[in-house]
């Protein structure tokens, strides 16, 4: 049986990456099906994460402008 791996975002089920078919010796014969293997990745795609990187744990923090480090740098 041939396999085709399709990676999908686990949250919104959009396609993340489509791998090429991994053919077996019977590839291309009549009635020979290609088994699709779905691999989930633990993200939401950019189109469905409308609020930017809300899934990131650092998103809720105040942005570090680098003010402290630039002060000590001088
Ligand atoms: Zn096959
Ligand atoms: Zn999506």
Automatic annotation (TrEMBL):
Tell me which domain of life the UniProt entry assigns to the organism this sequence originates from.
Eukaryota
Region feature (Disordered): 49-74
Q: What name appears for this protein in its UniProt entry?
A: Uncharacterized protein
Recorded source organism is: Penicillium cinerascens
């Amino acid at each position: 049986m041939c396999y085709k791996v399709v990676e999908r975002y686990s949250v919104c089920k959009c396609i993340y990456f489509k791998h090429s078919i991994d053919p077996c010796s019977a590839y291309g014969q009549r009635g020979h099906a290609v088994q699709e293997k779905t691999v989930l990745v633990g993200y939401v795609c950019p189109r469905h994460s409308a609020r930017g990187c809300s899934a990131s744990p650092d998103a809720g923090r105040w942005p570090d402008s680098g003010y402290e480090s630039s002060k000590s740098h001088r």
